[in-house]
Hints:
CATH architecture of the largest domain: 3-Layer(aba) Sandwich
CATH topology of the largest domain: Aminopeptidase
Bound molecules: ligand BES, manganese (II) ion, zinc ion
Distance between the termini: 32 Å
Radius of gyration: 24 Å
Amino acid sequence: MRVALPTSRATEVETPLLAVPVFADEGGRGADFDAVDQAAGGLLGRIADEEGFKAEPGKSLLVHANDGPAQRYLLLGAGKRAEFAPKELRGLAAAACDEANARHLTGCALVAPEGLDAAASVHFATLGAVLASYRYHKYLTRDVEATTCERMLVAVAGADAKALERVAARATRAAEAVNLARDLVNGPPREITPTRLAEVASEIAAAEGLEVRILDESAIAEQGMNLLTAVGSGSDEPPRFIHLTWRPEGADANTPSIALVGKGITFDAGGYNIKPTGSMEDMKMDMAGAAAVLGAMKAVAAFAPKYVVHGIVPTCENLVSGSAYKPGDVFHAKNGKSVEIMNTDAEGRLVLADALTYAAELGVGRIVDLATLTGACMVALGPHTAGLMGNDDGFRDKVAGAAARAGEDVWPLPLTKKLKAMLKSPIADMKNVGERWGGALTAGIFLSEFVGDVTWAHLDIAGPAYTEKPEPSVAKGGTGFGVLTLLELLDGEV
Ligand code: BES
Ligand code: MN
Ligand code: ZN
């Protein structure tokens, strides 16, 4: 999918399908609609009236035309003008592409409403177009509906086309990074193994000029990552530890640095605390944090942030076998603390603990981790919102700000000090689970024990990483949640 800026005005763009946002204001449908309607000889207004078209978000109306530059017009409900932000163009652009694909058209165009920030409009419209073109049909041997819409023009009034082409190119890179994360999450666990994730990381490093370090099972053991070893011990697939590094030109020891850490459980059966039917079917998605980190690292060189960026992924399977770890086992984490395993299904925090220690030992200034960590976070915030925790309110707010700019939904949760008592073990420094209540928070508190004094934020993405209900620009399955937030974060001051 390619997004471009047309050289002609919106009313003159030659396209098989011209999508026009329509506002639901008392005074009329908006200046953009009026201009296009006039070019179409008043046809659109007439049909919109006849059909009783309500310009609410999610509503659309297709109008065929015999003359005028466009062969079809797609009226897209945009709600109230005063409430409309460029962010909304992501969904509208996706709806335009979906309609074009459904009708086997090769291209479409979208009018960006007047009076909005032009760069932001192009950014979100591009995201919508590239994300809407995503399909996962690698394993389909029939009924493959190829996408036909390969080009979308975004008509923006009176703007610097050169600069906007660059905005579109960047947004395309970002959306492709999200689509990479989706592919990794959607891939069956037989294919997306720890070994495969390590290969993907090496491919990213080669293509983007990053440093790469892959630790195999013996190197992991040598590093003292006994929690990662323990979780992976029930599987025939060996664990891997992935470390990618981006360095801006001229970086030295004083260049600020950040580590992105992603949970990479390529299948979570729960271990001996095995998951029941109904809870295990989607657990190939338990590497969505890793996918978000790899996606962000795929785009990092193109975005060229001024930070040294480390992408870190501890990855293994959590299975049952004669060699699997057991409830009651005690292991020493990489940072020396002993952990009593009280539930083998609380494995994400274990592999992350060793990865967070590794990141802290690199001497980074900031750490963000992303993990499909707890069902409790979904109980607290619902299926679309990530829980945001951390040890520094200022940095937590920076992550929240990045998510807001990215259009991803996150909400802060407290790491209530009193809950730490729940992690007391009679025989070890701590155990890996608390009591029933506050499960997302005790998981966060557990992680906080492994970051030393590094400024750290934690995103529990168990809900938004995967969806059963598709929306325009978000297909069923892996969503790629987190990639855009990370790229926004790297783009700003942390
Ligand atoms: N991977 C799961 C969390 C999860 C659940 C992600 C549903 C996505 C959807 C995690 O490893 C897990 O099993 N967590 C347990 C923790 C409990 C044992 C303390 C949970 O949430 O039940
Ligand atoms: Mn689990
Ligand atoms: Zn898990």
